[in-house]
Design brief:
- About 40% of the residues are buried.
- Mean pLDDT is about 90; it is low at about 1-20.
- Helix content is about 45%, strand content about 10%.
- It starts with a helix and ends in a 15-residue tail after the last helix.
- Strands 1-4-3-2-5-6 form a six-stranded mixed sheet.
- It is built from twelve helices and six strands.
- It is globular and about 50 Å long.
């Protein structure tokens, strides 16, 4: 019995329908259209199995105290601590085909999550900065934002996770993927690193971190926007989750073409996150 095959047979029934509305390149997802948009994503996965993802969150609210074996051990505990305390505000997803192309119809989604200003933990200065830089509207998130438990159920059955045919792409992805993992699990992430990575690889069997990949390329460092400039990738200068996910995916495929001869060694690079190499167990 395989958990992957169970979910494929029960839930991963791709339909022939395509996007509900054609020519929609930028799609805002709220509570009202969540189910429909995830159905559209599921329909596209057979032809666009590369999923680039970025999240927007309201600051880092906690830093672990004590002695740690290495900076990687400290960073992992910092990620887990903050994911267990906070909720993300936005999640950007862009789908690519195997050649790095997006669909001419719908290709990118920005999921806007519920925010409870009375109960949620966040840095007010970070939230204010997001309001001015990305246009985040806390009141709209409170009234119309996607509930995390509903998103978890629909994401679990979407074909995006628990599926080794899907390749996830991110940038400095330890935190972004961990936020998703926390939503999917519906409980605090475990602090034990072996248990943490066991859950991570169950839900995300194949994931690449563009920032980690760039460490093996000379003179290719910095932020994702700086990297896009060096790679001569066409990129909007917007810093919301949706645009950042698109730019991250474009940089991945450009690097794959220029520096990895269109074939990345999965044994060496799969599941390795920037600055977490020392704590990441090798893939079986």
């Amino acid at each position: 019995f395989s958990l992957f095959s169970f979910y494929r047979k029960r839930f991963f029934l791709f339909t022939d329908t395509h996007c509900s509305m054609t020519r929609r390149r930028r799609i805002e997802v709220w509570r009202s259209n969540l189910e429909r948009e995830l159905e559209d994503i599921r329909a596209m996965l057979p032809t666009h199995p590369y999923v680039s993802v970025m999240s927007v969150y309201p600051g880092i609210v906690a830093r672990p105290l004590g002695k740690f074996k290495s900076s990687s051990h400290l960073l992992l505990q910092k990620i887990i601590t903050n994911v267990n305390l906070m909720n993300i505000l936005q999640l950007g997803i862009t789908l690519f085909d195997e050649d790095g192309n997006v669909s001419s119809d719908c290709s990118s989604w920005q999921f806007n999550f519920f925010l409870d200003p009375k109960k949620d933990v966040f840095l007010k200065t970070s939230l204010d900065l997001l309001k001015s830089n990305t246009g985040i509207d806390p009141e709209k998130h409170e009234k119309e934002g996607v509930k995390h438990d509903v998103f978890a159920v629909l994401l679990t059955t979407s074909g995006l996770v628990l599926n080794p045919d899907i390749v996830w792409i991110t940038f400095e992805g330890g935190l972004h993927v961990s936020f998703l993992l926390g939503i999917l699990m519906g409980e605090d992430l475990p602090f034990d690193k072996d248990e943490y990575f066991e859950f991570l690889r169950l839900y995300f069997p194949r994931v690449f971190d563009v920032k980690h990949l760039s460490s093996s390329v000379k003179n290719l460092s910095g932020t994702i926007m700086e990297m896009a400039d060096r790679l001569k990738v066409d990129a909007n200068k917007e810093y919301d989750a949706l645009n950042l996910s698109t730019v991250t995916g474009k940089c991945f495929f450009k690097m794959k073409e220029l520096y990895f001869e269109d074939k990345i060694d999965e044994k060496r690079q799969l599941g390795m996150f920037h600055q977490l190499q020392d704590v990441t167990p090798p893939f079986a």
